Amino acid sequence: MSKILKFKIFDTKINKIIQNINCCIDVNGQGVQSFSNKGFIEGTIKNKYLIPLQYTNKNDIKGTEIYDGYIIKREYEVLGGNDITGVVKFDECAWWIVNEIEQRSERLFDEIAIDIILGNKWENPELLKKLNIREEV
């Protein structure tokens, strides 16, 4: 499997994930520089209202791409699996499904797990409360 490096952008001004935006992402996590359709710079690199969401290189059971901050429900059809519902995060050089309230996490990559995207922590903050997941937005 080859690694695909791609991003979506969450715009906190309109509370929406932007699918297609011309931008340059600062690899140190300091900001996102956006560009107009004609390639002109918009704003500054310190566009704090734009949050990059990295693709995890994994899709859910329906084939939908999973990104950083997505809320995932994981189930197993075999005995011994650890079902979990949580937020996708990158930590310790790996992607995880994290549930802070239950104080546990499971690696995102699992060949026998069934992952379902329920939403994301930015556009669906009500899901965090409903599913009893503590997460900063």
TrEMBL record:
Gene3D superfamilies xrefs = YopX-like domains
Domain spans labelled YopX protein: 6-129
InterPro entries, per the entry: YopX-like_C, YopX_protein
Q: What domain of life?
A: Bacteria
Task: Supply the name of the protein.
Answer: YopX protein
Upper classification of the source organism reads: Bacteria, Bacillati, Bacillota, Clostridia, Eubacteriales
